[in-house]
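Worked example

This section walks through a single chain of length 916. The input is the sequence exactly as stored; nothing has been trimmed or padded.
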Amino acid sequence: MLKKFFTSFFVLLFVFGTAQIIPYDLKLEYRTNPEGVDVLKPRFFWKVASDQNGQFQTAYHLIVATSKEKLDQNIGDAFDSKKVKSDQTTQVVYKGKSLQPSADYFWKIKVWDKDGKESKWSEIAHFSTGLFAAKDWKGAQWIAWKDQAEWETEWWRKKDVESQALQFQLPSYFGSSMTMFERYHFFHDKPYDAAPLLRKDFKVNKKVKTAKAYISGIGYYELYINGKRIGDQVLDPGWTDYRKTILYATHDITKEVQNGDNLAGVMLGRGFYGQLAYDHWGFYKKGGYVGQPKLMCRIKITYEDGAEDNVISDLSWKITAGPIIYDDPHMGEIYDATKEIPNWNLSNFDASKWANVVSSPHPGGALISQMCQPIRVTKTFQPIAIKSKGAYGQWIDTGTNSSGWVRLRLKNLQKGQQVLIFYGEHEDPTSGGQPGRWQQMGYIGKGEKEEFAECHFSYKGYRYVQVKGYGKPLTKEDVEVKFVHSDVPRVGYFESSDKIVNAVDAICRKSLIFNLHSIPTDCPNREKNGWLGDAVTGMEYGMANYDLAALMTKFVRDIFDTQDTAGGLAAIAPANNYRNGKSTMWSSAAVHLPWYMYTYYGDTRLFEQYWDKMMLWVDYSWKNNNDPEKDGMFSETYNDWVTPYDNTYEGPGKPGGNEVVASMNFYLVLKRLAIIADKLGRKEDKIRLEQQLKRIHNGIQKWAFDEKKVEYAGLKSFSEFLPVVNIMALNYGIVPEKYRAQLEKKVVDNIIKDKDYHLWGGVFTVHSAFEYLPKHGYGDLMHKVVVNEKWPSFGWMIKEGATTLPEGYKFEASDIHHFMGAVDNFFYRHIVGINFDERIPGFKRIVLKPNFIEGMNFAKANYNSIHGEIKAEWKKKTDGSYDYYGVIPANCEAQVVLPNKSVAIKSGAFMFTVKK
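Given that input, the structure is written out below as tokens.
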């Protein structure tokens, strides 16, 4: 990708070939041509390109029309901005007529350059609106299979039985050591309900202009129109707290609807709405959001003559059991092919023996459009090795840890033959120590020449697969490995002359993407939970690699959906009141993630939207977490996670205790909120936050700083220097200036002398150390720390064959955790040197500050920012000097900070030669 470094830039020059700037890459709410937008004042985005250095936009003209024909005539009947003098190309808020629900809109943009030259109109972009209010669903109701009282009685009977047979094994207290078939037959008298199939006939007797389906099937759904699967999304809709928020999707089905008889078919899965795991995090508990699979759907058909028909989920739908007889996102699924119903989703099928659906209680949450990218199968390939294990079946090596599943071609199965597919990170996927215990899929053959086993309603975190019960050899052509995750666009690429650094970058990036499944999870195998401490340290470097804007907008809502009336936030999201208010460090994601959105995308809407909730949480934390006897010290459930001390420290809890780490993190929270309060004009809140900053700073200095030693320590005595609190203090600006140089030296000495070029800390240490130290002249040191092949280090992970990041410095728990990947910030920001300026965020003003690493010959990166693609590269020359060059996108500027000078530059190509 980076071999032809300037290729795309010069393609733009060739295409445009003029001095003016050209608008391109039009987006609405961070998406290209999105369907189902339910934001009443959505935001527009575009980029501009030019073949002339220093070009910028001086004005724009944006028009939005209700038809393409009107737009072609330059009639903006929905919105016409006229000519607006501005260089703004992002976060441009719609200011037109009130958007109508379930409607189509078309828009385009033209701009003026620095010389006042007017561009041509851009290509046309499109968006459709979703459903804004309950009345827009046209009477659709939640429908399900079983009477609610009957279903609840049987559900809780089973849970009472399971509660008598518990074991402590993630992810479930019950059934983690059972095979899929043992789980299914545990309630042999009355197993759990199969995933239901629903169908509805409808007729079309006019020429169709458009047809849209608005659907929420929870936990998961698959939609079919006339037998065709609609969309390429899987595991849809995204996971939420269904009591607070429910997502629906919008599908354009115009091409699938036919004249005459039509059939809408839906298969529902449990997803996280009715998961069968008797889990550790309380989702199964009464008062939570457990429920049977249910459907809400409206199909809107608009005819050429302007008439409209609606097909809604009501009591006229028919329902029966489908072939997926057991499904749970944690425990796995069983597909019984003998129970397939051929042609069930076609209009000429006789469903007279199917049951009628019943009305089902509303889950409680607000129905909102799923505005983030869905989960998809993003890559399909063959495994690298298959071996026979004799009586233990076929063993498959996919070549890398990943999230998803395999699709198996199974030949000449006997009818009723049971095949078990085990997934695991360890070489033996059936071993007892697997993260997530036994991740499985069961398949029951129907006795045909060729059958295919593939997951529908569960996904796995794994590298190795073992197939039992098949009895025949598998070839590589019989196995398709499928990557499955939220389909967010990749925007960042890094490469260097150091193979270990490249490998670390790869495992960081892969760990991040394989933990995106409508929320950022901790791991895709064992827990699949949205642990918020992981998001604090992981999502920032995630944004350097992937466009996470839409997904994080969704996830921030998930975080605030955990907030109780007093203001406490949970440690995971979604949650069922899991440790609400017990951790300011983990719940600080409620502020840190909007901050990352601000710095990477210039987005302040999340702060505007959730400001009162943020301040309520701040007040709650002072009231409930601050120690009144040691003011400024905050009680905390967690600490710096997976530190090397976990293997050497013999005392209770964590070295130094949790309070100081929590207090320092809360200091950073207050600092960031104070900056945003100023941006939003919240003068009183800014004054209050600045007062709280002084208060917590005084507390940290009083209770945690040893003036004689010139170092910070915890409230529990510990014999060693603690890197985490001292590096956090430096990085967050807590250290008084008169002590900063001394403390910085102690940190460096600890890394070099005490720990032999090792960083002795966990996820928060990594997050701060690889940010602060390269900024202050220690780039070469941190490079040595990365590539060190002795435990504990990233270089050691690579030497040991890691394909993704383990949970800490051991391969003892999950091997697909992303939260130590903050080291990747070092590569982009501080080796290549691509940084934002938080005063002018969103990479509108870029800070280029590279570190020329002695042990490397080159490093390069490109980042496709919200304003355009930034490229930077340095190469070591034979005389010991360095060439530093790249491209700044049009309408942006940069400050290049080099060892011997600092230079302000405009957009376009740049090059400097530096003697280090």
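What to look for: Residues 630 and 702 are 9 Å apart (CA to CA).
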